[in-house]
Amino acid sequence: MSGGPQWGRRQLLRTGAAALGGAGAGWSAAAAVAVTASTPEQTATTPDAGATGASDGYQTVPALDLHQVGISTPPQAHATLLGWNLNPGSDVEQLRRMMRLLSDDAVRLAAGSPALADTEEELARFPSRLTVTFGFSPQLLARLLPQQRRPRLAELPAFAQDRLQERWGQSDVIAQVCADDPITLAHARRMLTKDARAFASIAWTQHGFRNARGTVPDGTTMRNLMGQVDGTVNPRPDDVDFDRLVWSDQEGFAGGTFLVLRRIRMQLDRWDRVDRAGREATIGRRLRDGAPLTGFSEFDEPDFEATDRFGFPVIDPASHVARARSTDPAERFLRRAYNYAVEDPQRSTGEDSGLLFLAYCADPARQFVPVQRRLDEQDRLNEWVHAIGSAVYAIPPAARPDGYVGDVLLEEV
Amino acid sequence: MSARLAALLLACGLALLGWSAPAQAHTSLMSMDPASGERVAELPTAITLTFSEPIIAPAYVTVTAPDGTRLDDPEAIEVDANVVTAEVAAHPQQGTYVVAFRVMSKDGHPVTGQSSFGVGDGEVEAPGASGSSGSSGSSGSDGGASGAAGGDDAGTQAAGAASGSEGSGSSSALTATEKVLIGVGPALLALAGLMFWASRRVREPS
Fold it and tell me: Contacts by B78-83 with C-beta closer than 8 Å and gap 24+?
């Protein structure tokens, strides 16, 4: 620097330039951070005060006459899937006894009452919409029931993209335990596993989560751990064809349904390298609000015919939303998925995370399998996700009065 | 206050402006055969596109004859690492043939572009925006070989020059407020640059 301070015109201009340059740099950095940061969810409806009121913990899901609960029930915040394998040599009577105990636990805990011989009665005080939903594997039913009493349920065909692991495979019995409160859920889990111990061993435990109750307005479509709005196209209980799509009409199984369960792992370390344009092209929906790329809001119908200036479809025909879409309206099912994320030191991220994909429908072979075949053949998303677990279950109708879940199938055998 | 400090601040500002997303290994078109603007004696039986990075199948390629006939076949497009080969049906016409492509990089980023070559002796025209049917997602009529990355043209990027393009930018539409917010920074930097430039033109007794 020459001589003392100089405030000639040149110096003024340069000092001003430096100041503005610094300000411009700082502003740009802040703006870049602000715009790329997540914006609060824009919702069409204002939050309903009643939905997130102070009495949430006492809220119960009432029993239904014909169907088990936990299927058409709006998904609660937390879920545990418990898979059991009956002890070797078990017969129908063992299963009946087990289901009587477990059904009784489920009814009491869901009502906010302690289970029989409950060791922590106080933990049953806040049912927080607890539901327990039971199911049986086709193999178990084949072992224990004569053919004419068995609901027709085929195993899933093999899918080339799957990388299935035995440890997440088919179990004899499943319980889908859901509640808004994780302590309530832990308590229910403990009572159920305690009462099943004499009859079966645990095949696996799969924990899942959605938003905590109150984070978003009830009914908001959840986001999965890839950041996508997940579950937009889904039959709703008040839709005209919900019953036909979900509930079986098989003789002797009226009111029951079938569950397809797949544990889908996300390779989030590789997904890190995909930018927003790539993520949106892969799915066919915008990240910000779940709108199809050709639409303006989440529930707009995608326009698969729309083309860009070069004549290519705006929504890639190989994108997930295009491949999952069917022209056959029968190929629909109720999705009731949960995110999962568990510690896994063997993976570079330290975590194994993904989606517990649950689909309920009246006929998986007709409704689910054709869709999964299309995705298995081609889906941009396959580059980053694959199934590591897969199973199917027959979900019995509601228990008879004073009965237990499964009695429709297991009594009078 | 030295000129060098001012220049350094400017450089930092510009660098910060450039940083908004991690560096991506997007693929880009390296060459096409026939090349952009090339004249060939006969229509080839296949077009070959070579990219800088491997791409994920499927790849989309369209080939349009001067009279508008489409000569590509979606079943006859092959992907082999970073090379896409698209079979072309025979066509008797001479003139400008337009090739358009859309591929997905290994990192998931979609890359699209358009190019043209000539069959015969006539001049090769630069490709205009090809007809888009139905409700198109593209932003306005760009014409010619260059186009701006439309904010609402989700997933597709504009062709830079006639010989292909590079993927760029985000696809979500920005609100007006966000556009203003983002614009202020560069505006300040531009003003700073002007002042610095003006200061260089001031001659003062040293």
Answer: B79/B55, B81/B54, B82/B27, B82/B50, B82/B51, B82/B52, B82/B53, B82/B54, B82/B55, B83/B48, B83/B49, B83/B50, B83/B51
